[in-house]
Amino acid sequence: MSGAGKPDFFYREAQRLGYVARSAFKLLQIQKQYKLITPGSSVLDLGCAPGAWLQVACQSLGPVKSGGLVVGIDLKKVKVPAAHCDSRVQTVCADVMKLPKAQVRELSPQQKGFSVILSDMCPLVSGITSKDAALSLELGRQALDLAVGGAALAHPKNEIQMEASNDGAITSSDVNGVLRRGGHLVIKLLESEDVQEFSRICKPLFRKASLLRPKATRPSSREIYVICQGLQSQAKI
User: Fold this and answer.
1) How confident is the model at residue 153 (pLDDT cuts 50, 70, 90)?
2) According to a count of CB atoms within 10 Å of the terminal CB, is the N or C end of the chain lower?
3) Domain of 137?
4) Cα 223 from chain centroid?
5) 188 an active-site residue?
6) Global pTM value
7) What positions does UniProt annotate as the active site of this protein (predicted)?
8) What local confidence, expressed as pLDDT, does residue 122 receive?
9) Which of 188, 203, 208, 215 is catalytic?
10) Per-residue b/e over 156-185, b at no fewer than 16 CB within 10 Å?
């Protein structure tokens, strides 16, 4: 639905084409421009409810014979949509930010990590712009840490430091992220003065980092996506 609560073009198209939400068109545009998901890719979808990105990700894998996998994780229990999805899609009900990286990695093929990580996570908005942006940025930082690991974030070029566990110790399983070398990462943020800094932190870790506001984004929304392509070997996964 649009910000005014009325069906808009993308809402109607989603219904017509069998997508569970208009947000499908955001990932479709990202795919068209950046081609992050290819046949055989292993995809991790963070904050996967209601499932529209699962649908697009599965479509992007090509026919079943091409292989690949899509794993969606969300705080809510998400049923895999019947349309556009097949047996390669599975969902997990959990708080991914509280799961050890090793446990998330176990969900990937041969437990070697994912080739694409999508984070469409968004905090419960309060309406207070600065507060919502800060909460969104924290989710983005956590998604980045999950993907590349604390060792990469502690790189001299970056200011974000890896967080210790509750007892102050950093375990070896927390050092390495769950994104494979050469892999791609998409993170949603709410626009603020910190978005450019977040993008700057990503740039030395990836071959390229870009910002995109998809056409399907509602006019009233402040969301923007950081598109990170080609995880560099310096992240040492």
Assistant:
1) low
2) N
3) 22-235
4) 13
5) yes
6) 0.87
7) 188
8) 86
9) 188
10) eebebebeeeeeeeeeeebbbbbbbeebbb
